[in-house]
Amino acid sequence: MIGTPIWFGPEDRPLFGWFHLPDSTQMRTAVVLCPPIAGEALNAQYTYRLLAESLCRSGFGVLRFDYDGTGDSAGDPAAPGGVETWLGSIRAAVELTRASGAGQVAVVGMRVGATLAAAELARSGPVDSVVLWDPCLTGRAFLREQRALYTMTFARPNAEDGSTEIPGFVYCARTARELEQLDMTASGGALAPRVLVLSRPERSAEERLGARLAGSDVTWTDAVGQEALLDIATTGIVPQQSLETIVAWLSGATRTDMAPVAVPASKRAVVASDRTGRPVVESPVRLGPTHLFGIVCAAEGFTRGPTVVILNSAAVHRIGPARTSVDLARRWAVEGLRVVRFDLSGIGDGPTRPGQPENVVRAPEAMEDVVDALKAVSPDDPSAVVLVGLCSGAYQALEAGLEVGPRGVCAVNPILKFVAPELHHGRTDRRRRLLVSWRAWARVWRQGRWLLALDHHFPDIPDPIWWAINRAAVRNRPGDRLAQIVDRGTDVLLICGRFDGRQIERGARRRLRRLESTGRFHFELIPDLDHGLQVRNERERALQDLFHHVTSRFAQTAKADEHVVTDATLT
Fold this sequence. Notes:
Blueprint: E1 2-8, E2 15-21, E3 26-27, E4 30-34, H1 38-57, E5 61-65, H2 82-99, E6 105-110, H3 112-124, E7 129-133, H4 139-154, E8 164-166, E9 169-171, H5 173-181, E10 194-199, H6 206-209, E11 217-222, H7 226-231, H8 240-253, E12 259-260, E13 269-273, E14 279-287, E15 292-299, E16 307-310, H9 324-334, E17 339-342, H10 365-377, E18 385-390, H11 392-404, E19 408-412, E20 437-438, H12 445-457, H13 463-473, E21 474-475, H14 478-487, E22 491-496, H15 498-505, H16 509-516, E23 521-525, H17 536-555
Parallel strand pairs: 4-5, 4-6, 6-7, 7-10, 10-11, 16-17, 16-18, 18-19, 19-22, 22-23
Antiparallel strand pairs: 1-2, 2-5, 3-12, 8-9, 13-14, 14-15, 15-17, 20-21
């Protein structure tokens, strides 16, 4: 199977996607995968990749893509008119597959992706087959669910400016109104001669969609496993049965003869411009011996200072939660920095190493991935980089700080206490130097949970007492490891919410103050910052502080380091 990263669509707002082809570079039918939106898109990304690969094995060509202003595509997610640009993205994707030589086109849409696909096909014309996977019958219902989730989880009201905030995303008033007006049951126009609808048993769509799909040959079945895929944050458990159902149904619904394919698309895109009008360009890259997939973002023709490398957060692919990695990369590129965001092996679009399971967070292979990526990004001096990460990415960045000694490490809400995934099959990898572990006597009640309970019930225990507890019970104390990174000359920035910050500073406040006196260590506590940056106000504050720290330390003072950038330096 051949997966090609491409940009396509409008020149002024190019869309990013992957065109997957069988090894023969011929296909029987082209399938366009319309993703969900917001947090559901993050959870479904890996499942869509597996669906594309499975369809390829059955002879299909597959295009999966990001809507305008989402994922790796160009555009501002906060700009008005989002729904209209998303519909235009679907139209451009269908046109691309037809221009590639496809005799037949099928469309698969999940959740709001199904709602948008139905709206666009109703006005631009039907395709040959359509799959509506766990469809949102109305945009109003989707927003109502997401608003309720946001309010219950974070206990925050929505803004008074008419915008709608949901976990990790904000839609302006106009986009929210357009979303609320989407109604699959009310719109007219044929979608396709053959339609497959997968709906959750408790949300059966047959009664409400039956009349809308009259005239099509409709197959109704259950969407098995959707709760585990979408409703539990960032688990993304693949609904294998639904994948098999979709592949089997499309295989029985489409032509069997193969046609040659030519993919008319670009491998680079202008996504912004700097203050002088110089284009900010993004290009796909492959890093290291494992060929890790990444995207390099830089002002065309030059950059200055060290390269900024952004790591995955949990199982979220390279765009980051709330699209933070993409937005930061483009803002830093405007300031003259070259930025690479990439997928660790087994995460997102990252290939796996031999014998490595996929979609495992904090896998031991990730430590090799980061070092390999740094050697590819800066082959003459792998330490000439600034590592940026959130959550598990922050942990990996700090581990690499001990291993490589980069120019800078910026860690947001690093998780330093977790059960290493390799522990289920043996012992913890010895390269994990920052992972907090317990001494033998303290390894009672679920690996030291008594310490967390103590912290919860007695939050005002004086720091000297915590220092004594940590000395007696804990190995790999965070303060000691942070001191080792700073002593190597690395500039370290930690940004933490109340809970994550307490895990680091508890019993180590004196050590942290000493580190701050070096001028190379900066610890910022934002009390209401949630772990996954899902709330707008605190997220914007954290990202603004992160942006200014990197810009002031590594871009504004780095004119002597200006050099020409070519893709060859990253392959």
